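Two records follow; treat each independently.
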Amino acid sequence: MFVKALLPSGAILCTNTYRIDVAVAGNAKHDTGYKNILTDERVSDSLLIESIGSHFDQKVTFGVADGVGGWGKIAGNYSSTLVHNIAASSAESPLEMIRDGYHKTDKVASTTICVATIDQGHLIWANLGDSGLRVLRNKQFQVKTKEQQHIFNFPYQLGKRSMDCPDDCDRGVYRLEKRDVMIMGTDGLFDNLDGSELISLINPDHSAKEIIDRLAKKAIENSRNLNKTSPFSEKSMHALGIQSSDYKSYQGGKQDDISIVVAVVK
């Protein structure tokens, strides 16, 4: 898995009022257990954390990209190059960063992309495709990005031959408070953990590292469970018009690369 992490996993951004505890995790679908492999050429996910300054009232940027299947290994090359170009961008907003990175990425393939910044205490995001982010407060999701699909398993994506463009991104702004937890991930996370499972695994009193380890381990466990009714299996049945009484053949998680970023406001 390719990772550009200028802010290391477990880093804490501080002011007199807030601390932001950050952790990142990645796992290849080929692996049999959770290894938190952050650099692996076999996978198509890419992930970035870039710190600009060191305080809550300054800016930190997060991003995940998932190279779309069908392009083989070059999907990972495209997503990692896009992430590199986004990280190098001098643009201010996530949407502008994505635009800038997209126009500078001259490779053939495509990827989903989710980029967010925490700036002056505000979470600002832009998301295209089926990666995304959530913000949990008081055991309820206050932010949930829209999953963008043309048809089942065909997400919006950026690429030289794609019909989609940066301006198609779902985007928004949210004011963060103490004990908020931001979870950003590729579809390997959200296709294997439903909302109630995510909530049950998140405790804002715990460290970002503790939270992300639980999320990754459970997502991997679900992805390999052939009897699990997962978000992916439910979407499969809905897309195919399968009745619940006939669902057994469509059960199971989705084995996929998984990239996650967790940020906890302390």
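The next record belongs to a different protein.
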Amino acid sequence: MPSGEIAMPQHPIIQRSNLHAQRRPPASRQRRKLLRIAAAAALTSLAGTGLSLPRKALATQGQGSPRRLVLVELMGANDGLNTLVPWRHDLYRELRPRLALGRDDVVDLDADNGLHAAMTPLMEAWDHGEFAWVQGLGYPSPNRSHFTSIALWETGGDGQRQSRNGWMTEALETGLPHAIEHAHGISMVADMGLFESTGGRYLSIRDSLSLMATPTIGNDTMPLDALSDNPLLDSVSTHVAATDELIGDIAARLEKTPRVEPLDNDQLGAQLADVLHLIRAGIDTPVYRVRLDGFDTHERQWDRHWRQLARVAVPLAAFREALIADGEWDNTIIMSYSEFGRRARENLSGGTDHGTAAPHFVIGGRVRGGLHSEAPDLEKLEDDDLVYTTDYRSLYDRMLTDWLGIAEHRFRQYHDARLDDLVG
């Protein structure tokens, strides 16, 4: 059983250890990497035969709201039942004789639920009413394939139907109440995921030390110097030229802004540091996407899940502190998502298998904290699995409508009054 304290990160303005300092590239190398962002200007989802060209509406600086949404993918499917834990429930312990958490493993949130103790660094946000959980998220006809289900979550589909484009791209491109100067969305990992689109402007940054240096055309990625024999050369060249001034501005702003050291010596901490760097540089984009892998806990889950949740909580707590110090916390919401939850009953390998419904967190200065909607009923399982209580697209509806101010979008049909007070 895990023991010991989870160390809170130092206040990130940000001075870290020599270990972190050694990860910082020399100034000339950093400058070259920043300038390589120009290659990503080939709007990374040029699907089919059509090119995603720049939108004229992206020209004016300073007209838009500073609100932003940071989406955190918990890759592999987080076990919601051992994250937001009904630890007092007899049936919970019956379903999980080895994996059930007890009083010493959770922090009480209310009379029925505790938060896994590995997420203690985020309890300050909870105590300030800035940390919410939306319970029982899922969709009809659930799919338990990692690839298929994450594609559904990222396109806003369900087990019966699915869009080709990312769930928010159309709304971002046509519905924002203000112009966007730089990008509609920035992914801090190589693939575009929920930013797949035939229009709009989306950028991808591969990792914490380099920026994506290749345009994506359909499903193929190639270096720019390989385009000379490509029949789309003229169109791509025209497109890159049209965005050159914009990308040059992004590179110049990043170069003038001190680079942020990783908020934690881990994958998510590095990505969130890059997001903070972009925010401090004044890069205008409403949505960022980050990812933490390792949540597919089929075996030896006890220790693994503890470490995974700490890998989430520590850098997010540091990110929150930095945004508070910068005066940006009230402009930011952080929301998690994952392909599915995990089964209610533990397996024979000390882990859990692919499931359906799960809770997800929403954190921010204007979030109304607490538990929203209803948790699945442990006495009404289907094939040892939780039955969803809340369509995940109702959460998308709230983020687009209440947070980003987009009045018309395809998720209005999923409006759920139980989430009306999620965002203040």
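Discussion point: The longest strand covers residues 131-138. How would you locate this feature using only the token line?
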